[in-house]
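Q&A log
Question type: sequence-to-structure
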Amino acid sequence: MDFHLDEDLRSVQDLAAAIFTDKATPDRLREVEATDSRVDDALWDEVRKAGLLGAALPPEHGGLGLPGLCVLLTEQGRRVAPIPLWSAGVAGLVIAGHGTHRQRADLLPGVADGSLRVALALEDFDGDPPCEAVPDGDGWRLTGTKAVVPAPWGADWVLVSAGELFLVPASAGAWEPVETTSLDRAGTLTLTDAPAQPLAPGALAAARDLTAVALAAVQLGVAEGALRLAADYTSGRHQFGRPLATFQSLQHHLADCQIDIDAMRVTLWQAMTRPEDAKAVLVAKWWCAQAGLDVVHRVQHVHGGIGVDVDYPVHRYFLWGKQLASTLGGSGAALDELGDVLAGEDVWS
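Response status: OK
Response body:
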């Protein structure tokens, strides 16, 4: 597999890296964490004005498709930049691939220029009945509750799972703020006979697969950013008269991190180039959940006491890694799904 980015993807990567490095500074992150939405609207505006949101749409809509989105998300993860990029990007790809002609015409121009944002409501509370969709004339009505909708504040529309995938105005439901591990402010969405537009059959499966790949891309960036912090810290900190980076035990920890990151990158690229392959997607999801969490744990460990200091940047990488690892199920859930897929085919043929 060729891991080299083509010229277009390299341009997106370089521009995204410059914006996130310049704008997502530790001081700015602290400011955003004190706001009600926990979203950096100024950074979102910079990304929007740079045309990067359009790069996440399919080529037939002027973008670079899933690879373009994954390149953006990896750069975001390296700086733990607090904007709703993965959910908005996945929503755009789903609408482009499974929306009606009218939905695509009405929504995709705004998605591309950032003037319109679509949130994702794919998770339910364990033990609660799922959201129900009932026909209503030419349309549908949804009733039920969706859990932990990521960064819904400021969204115009929501893609809601209810047997299949439906487009619902964000104002059609009642929202309750929810605190998350990553310091993002999610929302519980309660719908009561909310008007909804269906997407084409298969949209929900595509949304879940694309979400798994997108989360793996963010987690790869988080792991790389965390490892860079650890390398800088252990190179500059001295103990017993020599840099911590020369201690063999720490070298082994960081080498294990690099091995995990390389495996995360390989499986991400396999899933990114074959998002229709359930096995490839689930393998990438497992590495995102398991290895991604292992990396941020090790990085925090090698920082010693300063690793738990919330004034030091490394804690954000740990929190993001932990949140991403459990979104849409953790590593155990990914293995269960992968087992079901393999059990349904002749793996020995």
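Response note: The chain has a mean pLDDT of 92.
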